[in-house]
Amino acid sequence: MAAQRKARHILAVAGGKGGVGKSVFSITLATTLVGMGYRVVLIDLDLGGANLHTYMGILGQTLSLSHFFQKKVKTLDEVVISTRVPELKLISGAHYLPSMSSPGSSLKIKLLRHIKALDADFIVIDLGAGMDLNTMDFFISSDIGFIVTVAEPAAIMNSYRFIKGTLFRKLHGVFKNHAQLAPILVSMAEDSAYSDSLMLNTFIEKVMQIDPSAYPLVNEISAEFRPCLVLNRIGTVESNNLVGSLISHCTTKYNVQLKYLGNLPHVKEISSFLLDIPAFLRSSSGSGFFKSLKSIVRKFLLDIHDTNVVAEKLQLLKVYDDDTIKRIGEIIKDLPEGKLTQTEKKLWQLRLYFKPTEVVAFLLCKGIKDNIFFEQLYTIE
């Protein structure tokens, strides 16, 4: 099987706290997209607490992620199952295995590679609640991340912390190999546990002192990290002050711009449909909820621009492992001064950990070519 990305858009749904309606939102989001004619695969990545199959009314023995983890199947395609919603496919998290709760780095990379290889317009990933590192890594690996919360103090505070944690993971993933900045970032993140701030502005000050060439990259990460916010079980009037507070706090504390998509109404009748959420969406009591979700979907669809078009046309590599990134970094390092200055080389080497496809496209524009830049066929294991 060719290890190339087929999934056009990967959407991740998270919540800093359990019980905020994250899974119901994921199902409704996927159902709405299917209704618009898109090919959708819904994946339960609440590893250790999967319940999408229950909400979808799939209670019998069936294929699930556990078969993939145990290598009983070779690809995720083999565990995709049909649901009660025509054309909506599901990868279930049923059949819990202890090893699924905390997959190692290599298994996580393998899982992400297989998710990206699924042939669908949208992959909707329902993540676990809380601050688990794997949850945050899956969130920042998506194209669009949704944070679902309710108007409760604990849920709001956990949403703040989740945003802080995911931003740190994103920064750390880029600068983990930077000899001076990596330990500073880790130390500052640990200190922030007592002040509830990620101190991004302070980190930028350190960057300007130690390695000013990295500033554009930090600024770019900050500008592009824009989680989508959805408020659940709340009316329009109540949402105004809460949204303003959330957005203001994330801007001043974390320098993160939240994108507020809207709110979903509280519907008491949903408790009668917890074994069949699709039936709730078809019911008269669920019509208002479904309508609100459609409005949210329309808002984020307007912002989608397919950044992979150029890469697809040129058949550029889309999956970059550590060895590939290292080899491309060496190519940049060995370039003559006439091509790039030392400062530019350092910046583009750092960018490899953030946007490798963009780096390859830049090198090609500079007339620098290498076989490693292009898609190759290999077996997904």
TrEMBL record:
Residues passing through the membrane, by range: none
What is the superkingdom listed in this entry's lineage? Bacteria
Please provide the record's keywords in A-Z order. ATP-binding, Nucleotide-binding
Molecular function, one GO term: ATP binding
Gene3D superfamilies, A to Z: P-loop containing nucleotide triphosphate hydrolases
* InterPro entries xref list: P-loop_NTPase, ParA/MinD_ATPase, YlxH/NBP35
Q: Does the keyword Ribonucleoprotein apply?
A: no
This chain's protein is named: ATP-binding protein
Q: What is the lineage of its organism?
A: Bacteria, Pseudomonadati, Nitrospirota, Nitrospiria, Nitrospirales
